[in-house]
Structure to design on (576 residues):
């Protein structure tokens, strides 16, 4: 009884730490290559508007439904966008994202999976505009996988509150 | 002393001088707020047909979506009798917005205005008025229906016009129907969802970009990374003497001949068609229809402000798609032609930068392919942009000295 309570507390703590690690990485474009490591091998990363999510429409802004696609996202950002495929340190919409996250909550399912949720706002400071931009507003609906050495995302769903995106975005939300 | 009174748009056309050469575009047309307002009338309520949706977006009686035709908010609705109507989204009493949000169903109850509870049916007829005592005696509900646009469809694509002088739709589309036939086939599409995003650029910059074949390899560097090229192909401008639609056709490198820069190359794969031929069309002034790879997409361009334009990317499958094909389209569409996709982001970045510096007076110039005066152009040419602006200038009353 005591051990399982400690276990639950420990897992809750570990899930919240995963979220913090995630935010630290997506807030720093220079650490983009570390982003796929936050996901398990059969993970998915989905960014979808609340409208499509609730209407059951499958079109998502991003639907990385395999680890390969999650890894490809980094390649697209670093190598595809801008500067003739040599975009690593210079690409369009050079921007500095800032995630404001909270509150965060953790719930356990019967199977012991942790569901991690949090509200977020993402601002971006972009070079072409003196004003910071509110890029996205919404909710994370994540599932954390504890089967490996360190906890990873089994699923990360980013639900966007607005049906109209305020801007295109470069980095993962 | 009698001064001639002309609509304001003609004054603007005089104030902004369009250069003699038709390959030059004065930057003022992207920065003049009076011109923007004049365009909402001159172009979007001019004798044009605006692409406002596809029937598969509103499959059931009572289903509706909201959109704007230029500055006019409208409701695109399938009525109780299954007929599609386009109604102005403003109460006939004191003009309140009737429905909010992108879509819904109102079969039961119709539209009830929150302000004084007037209620309209799905055909826009006023069916109930609260407390009508002491109304003028001649008041009749029949006189207060919602204004409706003229509507016609082509293979399920819904077009609307607010102008009585618009020619019949088929005449307006002219040879563009050839491309629409290829993309829409029998019109039996399944709506998979939309993504809407705001571009920080004037609506004309968004539309002219589609006519521009020159930027494709220069700007969209992902194509270079995987060595994807367009083979052959051409840019037609059907009906260019009148409307200046665009019909670009080309064939892209098959996925098995690309450099596998991504682990999952299905992004560039064509699986549902016998060849990698694709079409990219602009239905003047603000509709886009394409079947790039396996992505069936329509775009609706909505000018919000001088330098802000909302683009709705609507994605479709075919009703008879096997499950793998449907999933493939769902995974591919936004990843290629969506705001977080491999291509669209770059257009947004470029157009925003054009808008930002448009306050520097002078002219933008169109060169590639312009020695040829008439379509067809090569798929790498930017020359078709001229025809977009010829159509625009005719509607807006800009003098075109060279015609
Ligand atoms: S404004 Fe709609 S009922 Fe009065
Ligand atoms: Fe482009």
């Amino acid at each position: 009884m005591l051990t399982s309570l400690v276990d639950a507390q420990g897992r809750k703590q570990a899930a919240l730490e995963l979220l913090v690690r995630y935010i630290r990485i997506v807030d720093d474009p220079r650490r983009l290559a570390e982003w796929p490591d936050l996901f398990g091998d059969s993970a998915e990363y989905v960014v979808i508007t609340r409208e499509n999510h609730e209407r059951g429409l499958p079109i998502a802004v991003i639907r990385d439904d395999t680890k390969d696609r999650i890894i490809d996202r980094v390649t697209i950002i670093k190598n595809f966008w801008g500067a003739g495929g040599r975009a690593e340190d210079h690409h369009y919409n050079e921007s500095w994202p800032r995630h404001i996250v909270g509150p965060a909550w953790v719930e356990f399912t019967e199977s012991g999976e942790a569901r991690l949720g949090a509200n977020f706002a993402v601002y971006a400071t972009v070079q072409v505009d003196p004003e910071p931009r509110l890029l996205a507003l919404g909710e994370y609906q994540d599932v954390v996988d504890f089967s490996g050495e360190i906890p990873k995302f089994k699923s990360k769903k980013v639900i966007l509150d607005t049906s109209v995106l305020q801007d295109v975005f470069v980095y993962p939300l | 002393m009698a001064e001639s009174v002309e609509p304001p748009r003609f004054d603007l056309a005089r104030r902004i001088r369009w250069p003699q050469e038709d390959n030059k575009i004065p930057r003022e047309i992207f920065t003049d707020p009076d011109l923007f307002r004049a365009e909402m009338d001159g172009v979007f309520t001019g004798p044009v047909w605006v692409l406002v949706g596809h029937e598969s977006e509103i499959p059931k009686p009572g289903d509706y979506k909201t959109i704007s035709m230029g500055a006019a908010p409208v409701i695109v609705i399938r009525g109780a009798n299954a007929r599609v109507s386009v109604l102005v989204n403003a109460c006939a009493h004191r003009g309140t917005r009737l429905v909010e949000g992108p879509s819904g169903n109102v079969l039961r109850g119709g539209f009830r205005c929150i302000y004084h509870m007037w209620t309209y049916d799905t055909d826009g007829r006023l069916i109930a008025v609260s407390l009508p005592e002491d109304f003028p005696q001649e008041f009749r509900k029949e006189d207060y229906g919602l204004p409706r646009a003229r509507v016609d469809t082509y293979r399920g694509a819904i077009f609307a016009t607010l102008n009585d002088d618009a020619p019949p739709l088929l005449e307006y589309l002219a040879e563009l129907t050839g491309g629409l036939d290829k993309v829409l086939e029998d019109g039996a599409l399944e709506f998979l969802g939309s993504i809407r995003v705001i571009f920080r650029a004037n609506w004309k910059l968004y539309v002219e970009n589609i006519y521009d074949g020159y930027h494709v390899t220069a700007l969209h560097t992902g194509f270079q990374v995987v060595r994807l090229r367009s083979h052959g192909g051409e840019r037609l401008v059907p009906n260019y003497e009148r409307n200046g639609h665009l019909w670009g056709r080309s064939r892209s490198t098959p996925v098995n001949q690309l450099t596998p820069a991504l682990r999952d190359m299905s992004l560039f794969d064509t699986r549902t068609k016998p060849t990698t031929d694709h079409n990219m069309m602009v239905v003047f002034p603000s509709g886009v229809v394409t079947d790039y790879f396996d992505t069936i997409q329509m775009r609706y361009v909505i000018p919000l402000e001088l330098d802000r334009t909302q683009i709705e990317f609507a994605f479709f499958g075919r009703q008879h798609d096997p499950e793998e094909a449907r999933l493939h389209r769902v995974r591919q569409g936004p990843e290629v032609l969506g705001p977080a996709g491999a291509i669209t982001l770059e257009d947004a970045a470029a157009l925003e930068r054009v808008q930002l510096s448009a306050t520097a007076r002078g002219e933008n110039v169109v060169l590639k392919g312009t020695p040829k005066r008439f379509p067809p152009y090569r798929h790498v040419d930017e020359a078709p942009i001229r025809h977009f602006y010829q159509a625009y200038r005719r509607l807006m009353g800009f003098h075109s000295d060279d015609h």
Observations:
- Residues 2-26 of chain A form the longest helix (25 residues).
- Chain A has one domain: 2-160.
- Confidence is low (pLDDT under 50) at residues 83-87 of chain A.
